[in-house]
Amino acid sequence: MIKVKARGGESIQQMMKRFKKMCEKEGLIKDIKRQSYYEKPSEKKRRRMRRSRTHGM
Question: Which of 56, 2, 4 is nearest to 31 (CA)?
Fold first, then answer.
């Protein structure tokens, strides 16, 4: 779970910016977008295969 504590003299906008950056770093936003629509099992398999091929080198 991502937690953001206020630093001394930090505005809410700065805290939100830090929170968003942490979420993006964790891959949370990408994961939420991917799960927001149905993906066929064959598409999941194809995506996994592509990813393993590019990262395996």
Answer: 2
Tokens standing for residue 14:
């700065």
Specify whether the backbone of 38 is left (phi greater than 0), alpha (psi in -120 to 50) or beta: beta
Q: How far is CA 2 from CA 10, 11, 16, in A?
A: 18, 18, 12
Q: How many helices (H) and strands (E) does the chain have?
A: 3, 0
Under DSSP, the state recorded for 32 is H
Stretches in the chain below the pLDDT threshold 50 = none
- Is the Cβ–Cβ distance between 47 and 31 less than 8 Å? no
> What are the sequence ranges of the domains in the chain?
12-55
